[in-house]
Design goal:
373 residues; mainly alpha; two-stranded antiparallel ribbon; 17 helices
């Protein structure tokens, strides 16, 4: 996490107040689970753990967009917006539980991914049956639990809002959830399509996945949601969409670079996890395209054969990362990030946002795309 991000999300106590909502929800969940069975509290532990980490950028984008469009702190409406921010964080937690199962990830935020943790629990307690299947089943159910929690917080936040405002916010939230689900499928599909022969098509699919699965839900929809909760006009909502999408794309492209070249001490994931998982990213597509253009058949073959190889050792990861770097693809992706972010910042400069919301949103945008973790 960049050093700038904590101070940004702490202004007006945004993070502490959202964390308080999340803590309260986990406490309520424990009560419900305890009434069901003494064996279920471990589920609340897993939810609490995944909520402990995270930058709270989505919630902060929502809150400061609300402030930028006229929201007043210290009001009941402010508390509702913070609850919506908590709903966004819970939805992200659900997506992470499910995403880790689909990607067969080993870790999440420095801890074993939920399906791995529950597979280990299966072994520790000497349970019968397949440990991996038990772990995946538990992680899927954890995703469902956090989806329910997200809906509860969102519905609670809107319960006392004027109907037109609630309906506009609900439309944004529902679209976001649908798009992310579709984006997850497109990601799964992209992983299954033979790749490397058509780098242009590979990149087009990767950009499609980025927009549906990450860009809109990470940045665009939270900013639009905040504006909708402030009763912003349709032209203002459209302006939020126009700047939020390229900024969200830049955010995910930065993630893709960190997935290959990031420091495990700061990312919380082993180096090269994206390579072992075979992520079909813009970075990978650009690397193949550059290698093909330079008639570097050895690098093309290396990328096609080893990307997605779960048996990659640390030495293998280094070789693969060095091969990608040698093509110049990381520099191209950096340039793409700069172009997309530049477009977003130009549009932000044109918005009549008052302080401190303007500085906060610009700072959050930089934290999203300039980070090194």
């Amino acid at each position: 996490m960049s050093t700038a991000t904590p101070s940004l999300v702490d202004v007006e106590d945004v993070r502490p107040r959202i964390d308080a909502v999340l803590t309260s929800h986990v406490a309520q969940l424990r009560t419900v689970l305890a009434a069901a069975s003494g064996d279920a509290d471990v589920l609340a532990d897993a939810v609490a753990q995944i909520l402990t980490g995270g930058k709270r950028l989505r919630a902060a984008f929502c809150y400061w967009s609300w402030r930028a469009h006229g929201g007043v702190p210290g009001t009941p409406e402010a508390e509702a917006v913070l609850r919506v921010g908590a709903a966004l964080e819970l939805f992200q937690a659900a997506a992470l539980f499910h995403d880790d199962v689909m990607d067969d990830s080993d870790t999440r935020r420095g801890f074993p991914a939920a399906h791995r943790a529950f597979a280990l629990l299966h072994g520790r307690h000497g349970l019968t049956g397949d440990a991996e299947r038990f772990g995946m089943s538990a992680a899927i159910l954890l995703g469902d639990l956090t989806l329910i929690a997200s809906e509860q917080e969102f519905a609670g936040a809107l319960a006392l809002q004027p109907r037109p405002r609630a309906e506009r916010a609900r439309a944004v939230f529902d679209l976001m959830r649908t798009e992310v689900t579709v984006g997850q499928y497109l990601d799964v599909l992209a992983q299954a399509i033979p790749w490397g022969d058509d780098p242009v098509g590979d990149e087009a699919r990767a950009r499609e996945v980025i927009r549906a699965k990450a860009a809109r839900y990470s940045v665009e929809h939270p900013i639009v949601l905040g504006a909708a909760l402030a009763d912003a006009g349709e032209d203002e909502l459209e302006a939020c969409r126009s700047l939020g999408l390229p900024l969200g794309e830049a955010f995910q492209l930065r993630d893709d670079l960190l997935g290959v070249f990031g420091d495990p001490q700061t990312t919380g994931k082993p180096a090269g996890d994206d390579l072992r998982e075979g992520k079909r990213t813009v970075l990978a597509a650009r690397a193949v395209a550059r290698a093909r253009a330079g008639s570097d058949d050895a690098t093309v073959r290396l990328l096609r054969e080893r990307l997605g190889d779960r048996s990659l050792t640390e030495a293998d990861v280094t070789v693969l990362a060095d091969a990608i770097r040698s093509t110049g693809a990381p520099d191209e992706v950096e340039n793409l990030i700069e172009d997309l972010a530049g477009r977003a910042f130009t549009l932000m400069d044109q918005r009549p946002w008052a302080e401190p919301a303007r500085s906060q949103l610009v700072g959050l945008a930089h934290a999203a795309v300039d980070r090194r973790a």
